[in-house]
Amino acid sequence: MNSKERIAKALAISTDTKVFEMGHDMSSCAAETFTKCFPGKKAVIVADTNTWKVLGDKVYAAFVEAGIPTVSYIIGKEEFHAHWQYVEMTDLLIEGRYDEARAVENASDHIESDRDKAFKEPSEDYNILVAVGSGTINDLCKLSSYHYGQQYLTLPTAASVDGYSAFGASITYHGSKQTFSCPAPLAIVADVDVIAGAPKEMTAAGYADLAAKIPAGAEWILADAIGVEPLHPQAWPILQDYLDGFLSDPQGVAEGDPDAVADLFEGLILSGFAMQAARSSRPASCSDHLFSHILDMTDHRFNGQTQSHGFQVAVGTLTMCAVLDLFLKLDFSDLDVEACVEAWPTLEQEQERALQIFRDLPAPRLGYEVISQKYSTPDEVRAQLAALKKDWQSIKERIAAKSYPFGKMQALFKTVEAPYDPAHIGVSRTQLKDLFPIIQLMRTRYNVFDLAKRGGFYESLVEPLFAEGGAWEINS
Ligand SMILES: [Zn+2]
C-alpha cells in the first residue's frame, strides 16, 4: 500500500480531520484549502517568531492575496509552553481581542481561569485559527477552537510530535500535564520542504515519539490479552501495520532527506488518526510517555532548558524496551494465582500508598485519584492473572513480535541522533529509578507495572534494569 492509499484509508476512519495534504511546496495550497473548509470566514494566523519566518509570513501573504480577511498574531515570548495561560491567549484571538491576548501572553503572574468556564456559544463573527508551528501552537489552537465550538487549520513546521492530528491536546493546567479531550484539526496542510528543513533535533524528537508506539503497542497487546482493554479494530492497524517501515530509515531522517522525513511525518499523522478513531491516546502512548509527563510536572531542565517531548519520550521508550525485555524473560506458566490474590492490597491501602508516593509532587492527589479509578478487585486480579498464566506462551509470542529489544532501539536512536541515555536529557540513572513508583500511578491506563503489582513481579522488571549488566546499570 502506498502513502496515498494509507492516508485515504486513515481519513476514512478519522472522525475529525477531513483534509490531509502532504507534499512539496504544499503550503501554496493553504489559502485554497482554508476557503474550501471555512468559506467566508476570517483567519488569524498564529505563529511564533521562528515559524513566522519559515512559513507564517508566506501563508499570511497568500491568504491576503486570496482575499481572505486575515490577521497575524506572532507569539513574541522566547520560551512558551503548552500551558493553560496560553490557551487563554488563543481563546482571545478567536474573539478578535488581540491586545488582551498580548497582555495574557506577557503576564508573569497570571492566575489560571477555570477550565470548565472556557466554553462559549459559537458565533459567525469569530475568527478561525490557522496554526503555523510545531506541537505547542497546534495544541493551543486545538483546545481554543473546541472552546468556541469551531474547527481550525494547521500547518505543521516540524515532524516533532504526533499531536497535530491527535484527538486531544496536552496542556499543563494547575501544574500538571493533562490531555484535554478536543477534536483534531479539520484540515492539515503539510509542506514537506518546510518540515524536512526543521532543526535536526526536532525531527529526531519526532522519530522518538513515533518509536514510542513500539513499547506502547506491546503494552496494549498485554492489556488486550488479559482482558483489560481490547485492541481497537480500526485504530490498531492504521498505524501498527506500517510502523516498522516508518522507523526503517533513521539515517535518512538524521540527514533531513525529504522522503525519509515525509515517511516519518506520515507515521506521526497516522498515529493521530489512530487516536481519533480510538477517542483516546492509547494507540500512541503508555508507560513510555509517563516518564516525560513526570519530567514536565516537575519542570525538569537540563542546562537550564526544558527538554522536548520527543527527547523525554526517547528515554521513556528505551526504558520500556528494556522493561519488556525483562518481562519476556519471565515465565508465568507456574504462577500461583491464588497466592497473588491473597496478597493483593485493599483499595484503602493502595490509596495510602499513592498519597505517600505523590506527597511531595506538584499534584499530590494525582496518584490517589488514579488508583481509585484503576484499582482492580480481587476477582478482577484473579481473572487477569489467570489469563496471563493460561496464555503466557501466546502472549509472549505476540509481544516479542511487536517489541524491539533495547539494543535495537538504542542503535536506531544513536543513528537518528535522539537521546540514547538518560544523561542526554540531564536525568541520572538513580533519578530515573526513583520515577518508577510514580509511573505506575500516573494515569488510569493499565500498564505492565499494574499487572506486575498484581502478579508480585514488579521488582523483577525494575531492579535488574539498574543492576550490573542492566540497560541502565548504576555504577556505585
Ligand atoms: Zn508523544
* Total strand segments: 10
User: Helical residue percent?
Assistant: 40-55%
First-residue to last-residue Cα separation: 51 Å
The hetero compounds bound to this protein are: zinc ion
Overall pLDDT level: 96
How many discrete structural domains? 2
Strand order of the largest sheet: 1-8-5-4-2-3
Fraction of residues in β-strands: 5-15%
The main pleated sheet reads as:
6 strands, parallel
> Globular, elongated, flat, extended or rod-shaped: what is the shape?
globular
Low-confidence residue ranges? none
Instruction: Output the structural class.
Output: alpha/beta
Number of helices: 24
Using the CA coordinates, give the radius of gyration. Answer: 22 Å
Description:
By secondary structure, the chain is an alpha/beta fold. It folds into two domains: 3-198, Rossmann fold (3-Layer(aba) Sandwich); 209-229 and 282-466, no CATH class. 55% of the residues lie in helices and 10% in strands. The protein is built from 24 helices and ten strands. The strands form three sheets. It has a six-stranded parallel beta sheet, sandwiched between helices. α16 (337-343) runs antiparallel to α19. It is globular, with a radius of gyration of 22 Å. The site of zinc ion has 7 residues, from α15.
